[in-house]
Amino acid sequence: MSIEINGINKFFGRTKVLNDISLDIASGEMVALLGPSGSGKTTLLRIIAGLESQSGGKLGFHGTDVSHVHARDRRVGFVFQHYALFRHMTVFDNIAFGLSVLPRRERPNAAAIKQKVTQLLEMVQLSHLASRYPSQLSGGQKQRVALARALAVEPQILLLDEPFGALDAQVRKELRRWLRQLHEELKFTSVFVTHDQEEAMEVADRIVVMSQGNIEQVGSPEEIVREPASRFVLEFMGEVNRLSGEIRGSQLFVGAHQWPLSFQPMHQGSVDLFLRPWEMEVGTESSDRCPLPVQVLEVSPRGHFWQMTVQPIGWHQEPISVVLPDGNEPPVRGGRYYVGSLNARLYAGDQLLQPVALAKSA
């Protein structure tokens, strides 16, 4: 079931919280709405569910306008962060609830409900807990029950509002993998809200990055990280080093170091340079490619590489993060290295300038 969002906006009083949002979600696609608090992602999800009404624009499911269709008639499953399970019901009865309250003409008989719930319990790997109550379950088990309950009525679309936000880190990772596998098996259309970049990257087919009621970028996880459409996306998506620089004439200055620019800059004055840790080249000796000295503050082994927090010496005040590949001598605190890059992103405010090389030769 595809979703078509066309020019949707939303006001709470005089405050506009969604600004003419347009987005097409293909049938069977899993899409993450990602952004900080106040970005509008949960409001958009609730509009899709029918729990909020838009102030303008249209919402369609597979080409049919559902803008004014009641939530109960949209055949949408909704999973909340805090489970919303019935405490007085067993796991089995919680999952069966949606089926048991269907209109009489649509309601399966008792045998069919039992068969359906048994299948769902097997699917979420909780068959052995069917007779337990929510108070006897772990957080991860409760969330699986909530998901099975949402799937019981065979929704056209599954919506999840920060489904793993209340769980500890290890359980979140396990459930993310499990949800992705489940989606591959059932191919339901799904939209989930999260502020966790790692969660969005791991689970979603596409990510919708939102900020202040606007869509900043839509793309695959790889596109979002490697080709950010704005400074906001660049800074929001994962770890990034921000360096202060200055353009004077056709030269870029970073501390006491300077490089000629390969373009004629329209902007003069302060600029910011952005580099992911893995985009910085690291050497043990000063060279044309690695001219900037740093001192190691912290070392974190990560298997096939070392993540290092280093203090620039004489060219930047704040520590930065770099990656040293395996095959080098293990780094130690206090050690000196040299860094550079052939492709730093250069911004004057929110305006992207041409990429620059922090190296003497490219």
From TrEMBL:
What are the TM regions of this chain, as residue ranges? none
Domain ABC transporter, chain residue ranges per copy? 3-237
Q: Which GO terms describe its cellular component?
A: ATP-binding cassette (ABC) transporter complex
Q: Which controlled-vocabulary keywords does the entry list? A: ATP-binding, Nucleotide-binding, Sulfate transport, Translocase, Transport
Give the Pfam families listed for this entry.
Answer: ABC_tran
Establish whether keyword Ligase is in the entry: no
Q: Name one GO molecular function term.
A: ATP hydrolysis activity
What InterPro entries does the record point to?
AAA+_ATPase (IPR003593), ABC_SmlMolc_Importer (IPR050093), ABC_transporter-like_ATP-bd (IPR003439), ABC_transporter-like_CS (IPR017871), Mo/tungstate-bd_C_term_dom (IPR008995), P-loop_NTPase (IPR027417), Sulph_transpt1 (IPR005666)
Going by the entry's taxonomy, the superkingdom of the source organism is recorded as Bacteria
Q: What is the name of the protein in this document?
A: Sulfate/thiosulfate ABC transporter ATP-binding protein CysA
- List the source organism: Serratia proteamaculans
According to the entry, what is the taxonomic lineage of the organism? Bacteria, Pseudomonadati, Pseudomonadota, Gammaproteobacteria, Enterobacterales
